[in-house]
Amino acid sequence: MSLPHAQTSPPPTARTDASAGQRVGALLLDTLLVMVPLFVVAGILFGDSRAGDGGASVSLTGVPFLLTLLVAAGYFLVLELTTGQTLGKRIVGIRVVSDKGGDVTAVQALVRTALRVVDGFAFYLVAFVAVLASPRNQRLGDMAASTRVVRAR
What we know:
Blueprint: H1 20-46, E1 48-52, E2 55-59, H2 62-82, H3 87-92, E3 94-98, H4 106-114, H5 116-119, H6 121-133, H7 140-145, E4 147-151
Antiparallel strand pairs: 1-2, 3-4
C-alpha cells in the first residue's frame, strides 16, 4: 500500500512573491524612466534651472516641489490601483495584489502609497531591510495595507 505524496509545489492558484531583486529593479526603472524626468521637467518649468560651463542644474522647492511630489505619489497610486503595475513593475514582470490574491482596493493602494514616505527613508533602505526581513518580501507599506508584490503571470 502506498501513501499519497505530500504536495511540494504551490497550488496552481498560488502566486510566487517577487524577489527583493525584482522589487529593486522595478523601483530603479520607475525612478529612471518616470521620476527623474518628472522632476527635471517640473524643475525646468516651475523651478530654477541653470546651464553653462558644460553643466546644468535644476532646483525645485516650495509649492512646485510639493505639487510634483503629489504627481509622483499619484503615479504609484493610480497605476497600482488600476493595473497592479507601475511601468517598472510591468517591465520586470511583477504586480501588486491583495494578501488574499485579488486586485488591490483603493484603501490598500492609498496606504501603500502613503507609507512610501517611511519606506523611502535613506533611499528606500527602510523598505529594502523590511523586504529582506519579511518572509513574504513585503515592505512596511505592504504589511500595513495587507498587500504583496508577486510575479505576474
